[in-house]
Every structure is written in C-alpha cells, then in structure tokens.
C-alpha cells in the first residue's frame, strides 16, 4: 500500500503539520493509516496521546535508521496508507525512507525565500532514484501561505521550481490557526470548535483538497506503472 514521506531538511517547513493533515483526512474517509513518526520532536506521537485520535490511525514511533525500512514494510502490510514524518536533517534515515516511498512530499514554506532545503531533498531523491533504479514520485507542497495574498516570495519560489522541472501541488497549505490547534487539542479538524477557531471550514476544505491531490497523484502513478 502506498508510502508517502514528508521530507525537507529544513525545520519548520510544515512536514509534521501536513503529514498529520493527510493522515487524519484519509482516516476520515475510512482508510486505515499508519504514521511512522520519525521526527525526533515526536509531535505526532504526542498528538496521539491527546483525546480524539481516530481508531483508523496507528502511530509507530521509536524508529531508527536501521529499523525504518522494516517499519515501513510492516506498516505497508497492515494499512492502506503509510505516512512517514521525517526529521529535519538529511540523514541516512531520510534516504532510507525516501527509497521506500511511492510519493515524497516536500513541504516548503511559501512565505520565505528559502527553498534550499527543498533543493537538497530533490537531490537526495534523484540519488535514490539512481540507486533503486526506479522513479520516485515527488512534488513540492507550498506551506504556510497567506489566504489573502500571493507574495512575491511565493511566486519567486514557484518560478524557480518550475524552471527546475519540479512538480508542485496545486493546493498550498494556508497558514491557519486550526492547523496549530490540532496539536494542542488532539483529534481531527472536524472535532475542533468552529465558534472558537477562525475559518475552520476553510481549513477543512484545504486539508481535503490536499489529500485529494495526493490520492490523485498516487492513482495516476499506479495506472502508469500498470500500463508500462
Ligand atoms: N499551515 C500552517 N498553519 C499554521 N501553523 C503552521 C502551519 N504549518 C506549520 N505551522 C506551525 O509551524 C511550526 C513548524 O511546523 P511543522 O509542521 O512542525 O514543521 P516541520 O515538521 O517541517 O519542522 C509549528 O509550530 C506549526 O504549528
Ligand atoms: Mg517535524
């Protein structure tokens, strides 16, 4: 079953946030999801201890660079989707997880000019493609974008990525209080209190669109593999 890893050596890029959004969205649709929490901060493991974790979501923590490949393989047998939240460094663990992935999502903070971490991740993926002799589907996810304006910095990042032939998600993850609250209150977006969280409906819509695009990319890749 498909493995989706979130990678960018830059901390604060939105890996953990977008990984949890994808996991809870897929679980909400009825899929069994395993999250491999390989982020040393263990945000997702902590989230899982709060009330409201969907029964369809299983968390696997305590993975090391030696165990990550086996952990992913075991999770593939057990669930419909495996989501890997990676650490903010370029390590052997990250390379191993990328080598096992069907899709690598590269979150890049759209509001900053810093796309260097993303470029590093793309080089890592291209090396893994050579080593494993197979293409590894990957796309940049612009995160923490403004709902109101498209900044020059964001357009600049987009232009650079397109020039480098890098795929970009149509959906961006907007800066929303709801996405932070998830880690404070636990559960899923739809468990949050709409009267206390501004624009909760828009946050829910945003997460849904992102998950929809992930599923569409995985389906297209599976169809292409079948045709080959
Ligand atoms: N779309 C978003 N809206 C609001 N806050 C966000 C968003 N994405 C990330 N954050 C916040 O930014 C910080 C870093 O995000 P995180 O997902 O942990 O990044 P990473 O895993 O790449 O280090 C966290 O405090 C998180 O709550
Ligand atoms: Mg993280």
Largest sheet: 7 strands, parallel
| Outline type | globular
Q: Which H/E pattern describes the elements?
A: EHEHEHEHEHEHEHH
Work out the number of β strands.
7
What is the CATH architecture annotation? 3-Layer(aba) Sandwich
The termini sit apart by: 19 Å
Question: What's this model, at a glance?
Answer:
The chain has 228 residues and is of the alpha/beta class. It has eight helices and seven strands; from the N terminus they run βαβαβαβαβαβαβαα. β6 (137-145), α6 (152-163) and β7 form a beta-alpha-beta unit.
Overview of this structure, please?
The protein has 228 residues and is an alpha/beta fold. It has a single domain (3-227), classed as P-loop containing nucleotide triphosphate hydrolases (Rossmann fold, 3-Layer(aba) Sandwich), CATH 3.40.50. The chain has helices at 15-28, 43-49, 68-78, 92-99, 116-132, 152-163, 177-185, 200-227, and strands at 3-6, 33-37, 57-60, 81-85, 103-109, 137-145, 173-174. Helix 1 packs across helix 8 and helix 2 (43-49) packs across helix 7. The mean pLDDT is 93. The protein binds adenosine-5'-diphosphate and magnesium ion. Adenosine-5'-diphosphate binds at residues 11-17, 39, 43, 88, 107, 143-144, 173, 175-176, 179-180.
